[in-house]
Amino acid sequence: MTARAWAELLRVSALFTVPGDALAGAAAVGRRPNRSTALAVGASLCLYEAGMALNDWADREEDAVDRPHRPIPSGRITPRAALTAAGALTAAGLALAARAGRPALTVATGLAATVWAYDLRLKHTPAGPAAMAAARGLDLLLGATATATATATATPTATARATTTKAPAPPARAAVPAALPAAALLTAHTYAVTAVSRHEAQGGSTRAPLAALTAVTALGGAVVRDRPGETKRASAPARLLVTALTGAYLRTAGRPLAHAALNPSPPLTQRAVGGGIRAMIPLQAALAARAGAAGTALAVMGLVPLARSLARKVSPT
User: What is residue 285's three-state secondary structure?
Assistant: First the structure.
């Protein structure tokens, strides 16, 4: 059980797509990241990795045929070790969410339940893409809820300092409605990529990558489109940043999807899935910039070179 085997099992190169969920959620409620946001990021990372370990445990018999090189069928990691890791990581994620407050724990519990339901029951059913997409949306809402809860429970002095330069953020109970538009966009992207991933081992589907390409294009348009009270009042540099980040999202996801639509072979389909996973980072950044959090957006984009570098060593799919 080498470090390399665990890196493959947990698909560590895809980890860099996770922190942006909570950060985009914090931006969606109009707050800078705080300690509770960091706890939400930690919880998200643990639950994401729990899903990766559980996924390989649940698919161990299928992988023995289609992906014999994976850590479990190749014998480098035992099924028991993978299942134990999934359970421990889930417990750690929920513990971190609990420290961010009861509302965050509630969302994290729903997220954990969705992850386990997807891996154990729903993955190979028509509900599979919807379950995976819901998990991503819940992850963004986890960051929004944790951040808003911390703001609501801050001392009066700290709250006054935090609101001197920004409009008041919604109360904790309104965090989910405030973050729902951003969560919906991330959910839609995840659904499209997951639908393509169902064909990555055998290939042969032109419809899935073409539908995903259409969805990605529509999502890009939705991100840059004016919304009352948001981008209409944004400065020219802020709107330029949103446009640039959206362009990076479309380029990262769209090009491999177009190739897979033209030639739906397993290698090109796998590249399309990998591109869709990596494209979550610029999408998260664009959502943060759209909410007026330029600093958060640029910080999220700083994860791109790290994800690209590690993806050369460990596949995210």
Answer: helix
